[in-house]
């Protein structure tokens, strides 16, 4: 395994991304033997067009801005990426990105030879934007924590094993299980995925801690610890961020009154919604709507 921060060879996915962003990765490591390249990218703001990449790319959103979008069907996506979400970019497809603030993501590219032998190779043939992947997030965070530990032979071996585990996870089909496949007797990271998807699909629902921990098959305190480790957020923060992401979309794209938006997203009152929105975005809902429409 090699760890460095130098430029990538011309023509690689990493070199194309670095050219589009105007900066290289903060950290990079790779293994020719195991056929992967992992990079950490941080602190880039704006809108970008990334040319088609030679290899499919798995991206894990680790931290930073909560409202990142991709260009779909002639406009910026309504769906947004938040920490804990993964994206798969297929080879040969130009993509567009809108980053409204500092961002922290990790990318993993795997050689085509290995992808062609993967059980879930079809998932790399089309764009999959911002799907929840708790196991991928947990493995990625563990890799990053080890990268800042004191250097040693054991550390190098462990990091390589972690990245190979992440590679195996995505090759077998990240986020491929359905709710019917989830075991009911013992804890599985896919239960956390099930909870996250339920929140993303219905942010206005109550999503009480007791209900979510029951779905995960854990005590509330243990569920909070596991959820934060997977997403970087507490369950309450995740629910609130998801609601406010949806609120920004509604303020920008609809003519609903602020009171109606607050009610539709499960806030107890318009004032509660306004306080939460101001804390989240730094401005009142009315100011956000006016600024975006101008």
Automatic annotation (TrEMBL):
The keyword Transcription applies. Keywords: DNA-binding, Transcription, Transcription regulation. It comes from the Bacteria. The keyword Transcription regulation applies. Signal peptide: none annotated. Residues 193-291 form the HTH araC/xylS-type domain. Pfam families: HTH_18. GO terms for molecular function: DNA-binding transcription factor activity; sequence-specific DNA binding. This is AraC family transcriptional regulator.
């Amino acid at each position: 395994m090699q760890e460095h921060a130098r430029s990538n060879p011309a023509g690689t996915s990493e070199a194309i991304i670095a050219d589009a962003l105007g900066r290289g990765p903060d950290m990079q490591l790779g293994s020719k033997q195991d056929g992967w390249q992992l990079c950490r990218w941080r602190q880039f703001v704006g809108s970008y067009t990334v040319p088609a990449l030679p290899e499919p790319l798995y991206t894990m959103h680790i931290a930073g801005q909560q409202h990142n979008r991709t260009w779909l069907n002639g406009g910026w996506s309504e769906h947004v990426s938040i920490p804990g979400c993964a994206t798969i970019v297929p080879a040969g497809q130009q993509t567009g990105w809108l980053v409204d603030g500092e961002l922290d993501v990790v990318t993993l590219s795997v050689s085509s030879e290995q992808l062609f032998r993967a059980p879930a190779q079809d998932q790399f043939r089309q764009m999959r934007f911002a799907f929840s992947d708790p196991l991928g997030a947990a493995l990625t965070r563990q890799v990053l924590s080890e990268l800042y530990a004191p250097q040693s032979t054991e550390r190098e071996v462990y990091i390589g094993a972690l990245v190979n585990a992440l590679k195996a996870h995505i090759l077998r089909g990240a986020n491929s299980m359905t709710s019917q496949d989830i075991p009911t007797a013992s804890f599985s990271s896919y239960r956390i995925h099930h909870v996250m998807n339920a929140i993303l699909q219905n942010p206005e629902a109550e999503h009480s801690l007791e209900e979510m921990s029951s779905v995960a098959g854990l005590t509330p305190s243990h569920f909070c610890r596991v959820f934060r480790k997977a997403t970087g957020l507490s369950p309450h923060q995740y629910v609130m961020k998801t609601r406010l992401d949806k609120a920004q979309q509604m303020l920008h794209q609809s003519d609903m009154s602020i009171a109606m938006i607050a009610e539709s997203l499960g806030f107890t009152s318009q004032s509660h919604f306004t306080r939460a929105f101001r804390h989240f975005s730094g401005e009142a809902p009315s100011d956000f709507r006016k600024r975006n429409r101008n």
